[in-house]
Amino acid sequence: MESLIVISKVKKFIKEKADMNTSANFFEPLNQDILKACRDAMAHAKKLGRKTVMGKDFNLYVENSDVSEALVVASKVKKMIKEEAGLSTSAQAIDQLTVRVQAGCLKAIENAKADKRKTVMDRDFTAPTSLT
């Protein structure tokens, strides 16, 4: 599976938020979480009879998300959703995925700090269930 996240931007996000490094293995569980979130959103959109995956189809929806830089590869996300479900993808969906990546990274930073490490690793990742 291709990476749906922009690895360089995720590394930069973690570096700017916590001055921490990121192991190469961190990105696979993050990517798998984004893939699952997309598939869940596709199922939700189809259940509602829509032809477009929207931001509100994601389980961790943030009203008026203020995303300055996408942390997912929009073209790959849109292509995957089109190929797997035949659906279009709204720009708001990309923002919601970025919010999800940010939440996963912030929790991973907390976990790495709790283990007194300066590197965020795959074992630090847990799929976000809330944005707080």
List the helices and strands and how they pair.
Blueprint: H1 7-18, E1 21-22, H2 27-47, E2 52-53, H3 74-85, E3 88-89, H4 91-114, E4 119-120
Parallel strand pairs: 1-4, 2-3
Helix pairs in contact: 1-4, 2-4
Rg is: 15 Å
The share of residues in helices is 40-55%
Looking at the structure, what is the overall shape? elongated
Total number of helical segments?
4
Order of secondary-structure elements: HEHEHEHE
CATH superfamily: Histone, subunit A
What is the CATH topology assignment? Histone, subunit A
Q: Profile the largest sheet.
A: 2 strands, parallel
Question: Can you tell me the CATH class?
Answer: Mainly Alpha
Q: Provide the number of structural domains.
A: 1
Number of strands: 4
CATH architecture type: Orthogonal Bundle
Describe the structure.
By secondary structure, the chain is mostly helical. It has a single domain (7-122), classed as Histone, subunit A, CATH 1.10.20. 52% of the residues lie in helices and 6% in strands. The chain has four helices and four strands. It has helices spanning 7-18, 27-47, 74-85, 91-114, and strands at residues 21-22, 52-53, 88-89, 119-120. The longest helix has 24 residues, at 91-114. The model has no long low-confidence stretch (mean pLDDT 93).
In short:
With 132 residues, the chain is mainly alpha-helical.
Search tags:
mainly alpha, Histone, subunit A, two-stranded parallel ribbon, 4 strands, 52% helix, elongated
